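ENTRY TYPE: protein
CONTENTS: sequence, structure tokens:
***
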Amino acid sequence: MLRKIRISLAAVFFIGLTLLFLDFTGTAHHWLSWMAKVQALEAVLAINVVVVVLLAVLTLVFGRIYCSIICPLGVMQDVFGWMGKKAKKNRYTHSGEKKWLRYPVLAIFIIALLAGVSSIVQLLAPYSAFGRIVTMIFQPLWKLGNNVLALIAEHYDSYAFYSVDVWMKSLPVLIIAALTLVLLVILAWRNGRTYCNTICPVGTVLSFLSRYSFLKISFDTEKCRNCSLCAKNCKAACIDFKNHNVDYSRCVVCGDCIESCNFGALKYGVTHLHKNKRETETDSSRRSFLLSSALLTTAALAQEKKVFDGGYIDLEDKVAPERQTPLTPPGSLSAQHFANHCTGCQLCVSDCPNDVLRPSTDLMHFMQPTMSYEHGYCRPECTRCSEVCPAGAIKPIDREEKASIQIGHAVWVKKNCVPLTDNVECGNCARHCPTGAIEMVPLDENDEESPYIPAINENACIGCGACEYVCPARPFSAIYVEGHEVHKTI
């Protein structure tokens, strides 16, 4: 029964979180966005005290059920492990805790979090890894399938589906996502939860609490026949059947051992075990837990579709300009706040309906979302990214707030402007500016035949990128948006 309950709950979370990344319509977020907000690291960075306390209490009562139910990367490993189990049964063996790897990885993670080295944090964070895999690998396949259905529906004069653009948002991040997926498949297929119990920093932090959980899996030594089936089916390799010990720091309460036991020698409940040598060793970890918790809290507190309506030309093959200051989404407050809180989970990237967000290739902010306007612009009425961000990197804002947040300002590039290069009338940027910050004025006010060029009112510009997106100049736009380090309200 324990295993069935665990699998049912895990399936709900895994399917729900996967849909959050696959769905490009925004429908899933109305019902399932809370699943992203209960992820451990994201809750810490968002200073969501309620969720952090809830996860701590759940672990102290039930053990590391977070890793086998709530964490999508953990459930994904279980899926791969289940496939491997079909190929070869009873293939796991007990192994000791890899402290030499586990705790240094946690230390590196905490130092990177405190120092603001976001790329390391995103590589190690489990939810971020899952988001990269789904967004970069599976969402394009999902969209292609949708486009096939759209073509079929169009043939029958139906509008049940509509086509969406499928494009590569970042080749480096795609490669990292693919390598991560391959690594997870190999480790889970061969050794079950190796990634969770040796690399994952969230699992390591929760392990300090799970040692003292109220409910645990334990042996009834009178019933045990030392058949080793429990150890051979333990994906966490944490059961020492010879000494009747369970390493609760690594046990994720999956229930596989209980089901595999033919003698009813394992149970999940309240335990009153005498303190042995192994438990004595865990006492020293109490201080480590308090220290790591304090550091994580300090880190959190120290860091305080192509959809276009009215284009006149084919807007393909634009090249992104070199921005001195990258653009961050409205609601992110500042580049520093965004860098310190974003875990690079790619949820905002996967859900952006205007194809404005994509993973950054800048080494200092690698894999964190950045904005660019080759495929669309940041529509003032869209607040999707602020609604889905689980880590507090993008604060929730409404439409009225967004229309007055200045994330950057437009810059005119004279040498690219088509009225000057091609001697034609244009004015696209002025016509499509939603704030009226651009007007067309004569290049020479004393010459009636002078071509009209854009004049930008920087005080009225919010940096939405509509002008950059609709500019017909190729390959570089004649007008582009330069980002601001700190956003302001105008």
